[in-house]
Amino acid sequence: FVFLSDTPINALKFLDVVNMKDTQQKSQFYKTTLIEAMPMIPRKLWWQNIWPMLKSEINNNEVLAAVLQPVMLFVQEATLTEYDTLMSATMNNFRVIYELFTLIKSVLYPRVIYNTPKSIQASVTILENLHLIIEKTKPEDVTTDIMPMLFYSFDGSTIQVQSAAVVAVANVFDSIDELSIRRMVLPKVKQVFEKNITDPKIVQNVLMCIERVMDRMERAQVMDEVLPLLANIRIPDPDIIMRTVRIYHKLFVDKTYGLTVETMATNVLPLLIPHTVNPSLNFEQYCYLLEVLQQMLEAIDRQQRNKLKLDNLSMASPERHRTLRHQFSTDNMNAPPFNIPNLRIDQRKTSSAEDMARKNSGGE
């Protein structure tokens, strides 16, 4: 015997007559009441009572955005066995997932009638929970079925879908091959950033995405595309600043990126130093910023000192100072006379022939 409180009992009762309710009542039930009640409902009843109704409502575009909330909870909580036997089979080899992503396509192309706030929210829900679906999906199906839809979503006409696609990439980057990250993901993420450069939430999502996928980019791509992107961020939000600092620190610590002291001195420090007086930073954020700055300055100091020492050694080489040694040799110096006190030295002169003759004549 399983004892149920009023909340799950009322939820199950409502589920029995849900088809008699209007769209607003059904939506409120699926996205709020049912979500709150499900943890208290026995798991056996999930599959017997709740899942069949959710399956039928997936095709109802009016309540799809609300239905997806408990559907994603099912995906998250289901074991692999439950997913394979009860969900995947029911979806007929991802037929329902195809339908859901067809909805995303409809959002991308405004001429389709599904471009409504409800369908947009449904697409956002799918993208933000894409990692849950991928966890239960076979790798080959992820590559052929799910990833193309993720990439298509970047071309959506609504910023909500584009932003959700950026979040999805950050959540599932391990499932994306490196070539796709380099050729598709980064260019599309950059486009989202450039179109919404003043939107704090989107900039935050873009930085989160870049921070997670940059290890799988080529060094040249990071230097040529990520650094200029970071330089264009002008939002003084503390969370955005900290994400920017973490990316710079990662570039600095990981020597494979080849961040030179010249780049740090001319492109990085001028962008980070002004944030040291940003009043929005708390104590921990300020300390982390200062620690990164000090590490970079110390690296610049070490290299410059070593460079200057080498320059000084080359200036002291024999070839360079051969002329100096010649100029200051004793052969070319005019030293003052050296006198010893109280010492008398008689100077002797060589006599001429006449002097000798006079001496001889006088002697006679």
Protein model, in words:
The chain has 364 residues and is mainly alpha-helical. It folds into 3 domains: 1-88, no CATH class; 91-217; 222-311, no CATH class. It contains 18 helices and no strands. It is elongated, with a radius of gyration of 41 Å. Residues 109-115 have low confidence and may be disordered. InterPro entries: ARM-like, ARM-type_fold, CIK-Related_Protein. This is GM25196.
Structural class: mainly alpha
Helix-strand pattern, N to C?
HHHHHHHHHHHHHHHHHH
Molecular shape: elongated
Q: How many beta-strand segments? A: 0
SS strand fraction: under 5%
Low-confidence stretches: 109-115
**Number of structural domains:** 3
Radius of gyration: 41 Å
End-to-end Cα distance: 166 Å
Largest sheet: none
Features:
3 domains, 364 residues, 18 helices, mainly alpha, 69% helix
Task: Please write out the topology.
Layout: H1 6-16, H2 23-37, H3 43-57, H4 64-77, H5 80-88, H6 95-108, H7 117-128, H8 130-135, H9 139-153, H10 159-172, H11 178-195, H12 200-213, H13 219-231, H14 238-253, H15 261-272, H16 283-315, H17 318-327, H18 353-363
